[in-house]
Specification:
- The complex is a heterodimer of chains A (337) and B (313).
- In chain A, 33% of the residues lie in helices and 23% in strands.
- Chain A is an alpha/beta fold and 337 residues long.
- Chain A has two domains: 190 residues, P-loop containing nucleotide triphosphate hydrolases (Rossmann fold); 68 residues, no CATH class.
- In chain A, strand 11 and strand 12 form a beta hairpin.
- Chain B folds into two domains: 58 residues, no CATH class; 214 residues, MetI-like fold, CATH 1.10.3720.
- The chains are: A alpha/beta (337), B mainly alpha (313).
- Chains A and B meet through helix 2 and helix 3 of A and helix 9 and helix 10 of B.
- Chain B: This is ABC transporter permease.
- Chain B: Belongs to the binding-protein-dependent transport system permease family.
- Chain B: InterPro entries: BPD_transp_1_N (IPR045621), MetI-like (IPR000515), MetI-like_sf (IPR035906).
Amino acid sequence: MSGNPNAILEVRDLHTQFSTLDGVVRAVDGVSFEVARGETLGIVGESGCGKSVTAMSILRLIPPETGRIASGSIKFEGEELTTLTEEAMKRLRGHRISMIFQEPMTSLNPVLTVGTQIAENVVRHLGVSWKAARERAFEMLDLVRIADARRRLDEYPHQLSGGMRQRVMIAMALSCDPQVLIADEPTTALDVTIQAQILDLMIELKEKTGTAIVLITHDLGVVAETTERVVVMYAGRKVEQATVDALFEEPLHPYTRGLMRAIPRLDVEADAAGTRPRLQEIPGLVPILTQPIMGCAFAPRCGFATDRCRGERPPLVDAGAGHLVACWEIERVRRAV
Amino acid sequence: MTTYIVRRLFATLPVMAVVALFVFFLLRFAPGDPAAIIAGEDATAEAIAAVRAKLGLDRPMVEQFVVWTMQLVRGDMGVSIFSNLPVTRLISQRLEPTVALTLSTLFVAVAMAIPIGVLAAWKARKLVDRLVMGFAVLGFAMPVFVLAYILIYFFAVQWQLLPVQGYQPIKEGLWPFVQSLILPSLALGITYMALIARTTRASMLEVLAQDYMRTANSKGLATNRVLLLHALKNAAVPIVTVIGIGIALLISGVVITETVFNIPGLGRLTVDAVLKRDYPVVQGLILVFAGAKVLVNLIIDISYAFLDPRIRY
């Protein structure tokens, strides 16, 4: 699997840790995945499962005072990023790998115009004049369908709505034609109709520009609509990986099943009284990551868990057609439906 | 914006009126009697009373106040009790050294404090930061006159690089003028510098933790641009505020600094006038200082609108 010529981004056995007063937090604990050119990969999991830290690790934006990439490899177009100099990383960020964030309301600089914030990226990475960069900014705003783009260039973020700000973030992130766009919960802070618009926009632009997207979300609905392959993370580990179709057809990890049972569904019939079955939450809490976890991280919350699950870490195995899952009890889970 | 400025300028009038009222009555309730000082140590009670009557100080206080404010409205600050010179002329003669000292201190302090504060925030909790903050605490705790004499001892007496004291007007040539201002500006500016550096650091630290700084870093921008444009412009409002507040600090510091360095400015004039209970001169000076402070506040408030587009007047 490694050395896939089609992969633009390869993350291998990534460990990212933070030093806190309570001890070392293993936020990312041996995660591997790869992203093919032009592909959309979803990374799914609850808050605190290490999704965002994985993203920040790829761009090496983990604050060095508290956190570090302890081991593992991140290869972008075959080049190892974990050992790259900071200067070289800076030339990569916003240019060949760019990122958009969850909080459109606070992710733009309030005292700089939208035009400046997009154009500075272009000036920095493409080495063009400010005038040309401003023209590029205008094109990008137009591309993300901001009406009256020329006038918006000179506006400040507080003059824009949340949805527009996220469009500006997308315009900024795509302004230098990156090969990879990491979108960390890009629609979580937006209301549902705007969410759909932004997702559609991202997919449309991806098809236009061929940028690969790593979409990080806790929302399986978003994953189902937009991605091709999915990585499910739990407690800093990858627990399942499959194509979207295979994952929704037959989720194999008890955690993925738990996540799916927690999604409200329209295709479930209501009973005579008009009530639908109660959504099932996953019992228990995400484990504390300062303690090394011996067995499967999900075992304490899992209905299938055995002594083996609690004592021995399950390896990722191929359950057929590239559907990877880390679980000792796959057969029992399969039969349980 | 223009309406705002005009409105603010009108709003200064009541402030100045209150200042005038306070300074007038405070001076007169304070112990000490200019008539007794003029009449001399051995003067009889009658002689003192005669001087007092000649100066008009025997009139009811309210009457004196009305006379003075009527003069003020016409732009006349009255005449010094001792030198008989118009107060406006006394002040304008002494204005240049004080303005020069204040501006050069302001410039030196701001030009040094902001980079220091930015550096400390960028290297927070590292050695540079600890050194800078240690210096800031020291600078804040050091009285102007102590620092002034230390500076004079080394730079003027030991190494003879700069004049011990005195002031050279700018028309005597730029270099002597600058030379005469270096030590006073440093002595006066150190507290101010410490204040601005600390505020810059605190404000920058807050800004550096914001989401938009993560965005700036994710764009791979050069460190200079990230710190000096993205962060500092956001951190500027509290810094500018403290620079404004510090002007009051400077005005009181000027009085001491001018005395130590023997600079013939408004500070020295103030000390002399207060010691002699030269009522019209003290009153005029306090009004000038208060006016300067009010004007600085106005400039600071206006500058907010340029630093932060969300602020509109």
